[in-house]
Structure formats: C-alpha cells, structure tokens
Amino acid sequence: MIRVAIIGYGNLGRGVERALKQNADMELAGVFSRREPATVQTDGASAYPLAELEDYKEKLDVCILCGGSATDLPIQTPAITKNFNTIDSFDTHAKIPEHFANVDRVAKEHQTVSIISTGWDPGLFSLNRLYAQSILPEGETYTFWGKGVSQGHSDALRRIVGVADAIQYTIPNNDVIEKLKAGEKMNLTTRDKHLRECFVVLAEGADEEAIRQEIVTMPNYFDEYDTTVHFISAEALKRDHQAMPHGGTVLRTGTTHEKTKQVIEYNLQLESNPEFTASVLVAYARACARLAKEKRYGAFTVLDIAPSYLSPIDDATLRRE
Ligand code: NDP
Fold it and tell me: What ipTM goes with this model?
C-alpha cells in the first residue's frame, strides 16, 4: 500500500482525495493544511496542521502538494522534499527550470524523490508534444486550449472598476484546427488560434458600453483576441458558471517520405480541471514511490518517467497484455 498525504486543501486537494478513492493500491493518511484543521471541510479525510507534518516522517511514502503555483509551491516543494518524496503541479512555465534546480538540489542532498510540474499543461501535454516532435521531426506543433475557464483572465475582469463578478472562457478556433489537420499551411496569429468569451456581472450604476470597451482593449489579456462580452445577473453567474471545465489539443502535422502526410492529435475534454489534474498527480505519485524504492533520488518531470511506472499493474502483465 502506498501511504499518501495531501498538502494543501483547495480545488486540487479535494480532487486528490476523490482520485485516491479510485486507486486501491493507495491510502490517504491525511490532509495537511496551513489553516486550523477544524475549518478544513474534507470529504471525510482527517485534517492536521501542516506544522506537524514532520511527525509523520515514517508513516508516509509520498506527499502530494496541492498548493498554488504563484507563491505556495516555490517554497513548499523544496521545504517538504527535505523529509518526504513529493509530487507537485507547478505550472508557471517560465520558472520550471529554476524550480526543478531548487528541488533537485534538496532531493539529492536528502535522498528523496520529487516529480514536479505534473498535471496536463505542463504535464501530459508536454509529454505528447515531445512524443510527436520526436516521431515526426519534419512538421509543426500546435497547442490549443479550451473550452475552459482561465483563472488569470477571470481575475483581470474582476479587477475592473464597475465589474462586480466575472468569468472568462478560452475557446479554441475549431475551423483552424480542422484546416491544419487537413494539411493546410497557415501562418497563425494569436487572434487566429483562440477566442475569448466573458460573462460579466455589472456593479450598480456601471456603464455597459464603457466596460465592454475596457475589456476588449485590455493589453496583454484581450486586445490580441476576438472577445465577446455578455452581461448577466449574479444569479445566472452562480447558476450556470460554477463548473471548472477545461481541456485542449496538442496537434502535430508532419510529413515522412517525400510528401506523405501524418497527423498526431492528443485531445482532452475535461468537465473538471482540478479533478483531472488531481488524477494525473495520483498516477505520478505511484511512480514517485517506485523511484524512491529504487533509490533514484533527485527531481524528475513527466518527461523522465517510464509509462509503466504510472500503472498499478506489474511489468510482466503489462508486456503480456
Ligand atoms: P486553490 O486556490 O483552490 O488552493 C491553493 C491553496 O490555497 C490550497 O492548497 C490551500 O492551502 C489554500 N486554500 C484553499 N482554499 C482555501 C480557503 N477557503 N481559504 C484559505 N486558503 C485556502 O488552488 P487550486 O487547487 O485550484 O490549484 C492549485 C494549483 O494547481 C494552481 O495554482 C495551478 O498552478 C495548479 N494546476 C496545474 C495544472 C497543470 O496542468 N499542471 C492544472 C490545474 C491547476 P491550505 O490548505 O494550506 O490553506
């Protein structure tokens, strides 16, 4: 049995608790939170103060870190890797090399294993881009995201004076995807690849047209996209926009001998982004426990992990089946 702890209990932490229930070879030892345990509403798991985690050193095989990438994981992953094998879903793409180096140093020094930046992007999408580029060296790779909620863009909308609440969906341009798959050569701009759809609740007295203009011209967030803005009531936002769907497509179009056309497509359609990301973390937690047993200390990303390490099925059976 692989003994697991959840570190940090937000959307992802809740998803990991659910995912562990589908994996018979793993057991949840507890949730560790910075908040007062009595205030953490789990789906049944016991909650403990994060400050007491070290007391469980002999009782845990892997800690699944579910903190936020912006400020939690850069501190928590190296700190907790001093005493435990860890998994995280660090997704600040530009800072992954720095995060990897920090965690690798700690893991090698303290003889632990850490698999960082698992999830789907980074994570499964990174893996599929690597497979596709290695198999079809002559070609182009495209990544499309959505339809899904972008937290960053939703936050940007909510910061506008006159906006009471809002949510933003990123939508892939399916016409472009179909043309690429058909072999059309295209020079794509940011505007061509994705559309942005906003659902906005106005604060009292706010001017609809002025807010619409402010949104569609917002630099870095909306000005380079075709953006649609819908004004809705607070009730409608609560009723119709609480789910956290996401997904996307990694596409590689290439040619092999002469002009023989080849297309590789990897597509995810997720009703719940955090529940899916959590399921990926749990599969990689299994790999983490196995690497630790083999004393292969240090940091890894999904690109370094053999697929069979994700499976609860033994290698001989996997080969046979
Ligand atoms: P949340 O904001 O829900 O949770 C982050 C942390 O905030 C928790 O670990 C928790 O720590 C704390 N927290 C949660 N709820 C509360 C609350 N009510 N009051 C106070 N503190 C709270 O983030 P998510 O779980 O949605 O996402 C975590 C990270 O996952 C994201 O930052 C993102 O980087 C990553 N991610 C990665 C993906 C990938 O494909 N690689 C995909 C999706 C997400 P504590 O319990 O200690 O207080």
Answer: 0.98
Measured CA to CA, the distance from residue 144 to residue 142 in angstroms comes to: 7
β-bridge mates for residue 200, sequence order: 166, 231
In this structure, which residue's CA is closest to atom 31 in ligand 1? 68
Task: Name which of 51, 94, 50, 48 is nearest 69 in CA terms.
Answer: 94
Six-digit token string for 167 = 């949510």
Alpha helices, DSSP H only, in the chain? 11-20, 73-81, 96-110, 124-135, 151-158, 174-181, 190-193, 208-216, 234-240, 273-293, 315-320
The ligand 1 atom nearest the CA atom of 244 = 26
| pTM to 2 decimal places | 0.94
Say if ligand 1 is within 6 A of residue 67 CB: yes
Q: Tokens 């059976």 identify what position?
A: 317
Would you state the structure tokens that stand for residue 28, as one six-digit string? 């949840």
Ligand 1: which residue has its CA nearest to atom 16? Answer: 10
pLDDT tens digits along 180-201: 999 898 889 999 999 999 999 9
Q: Could you identify the residue written with the tokens 């198999």?
A: 135
Collapsing DSSP states into helix, strand and coil, what is residue 287?
A: helix
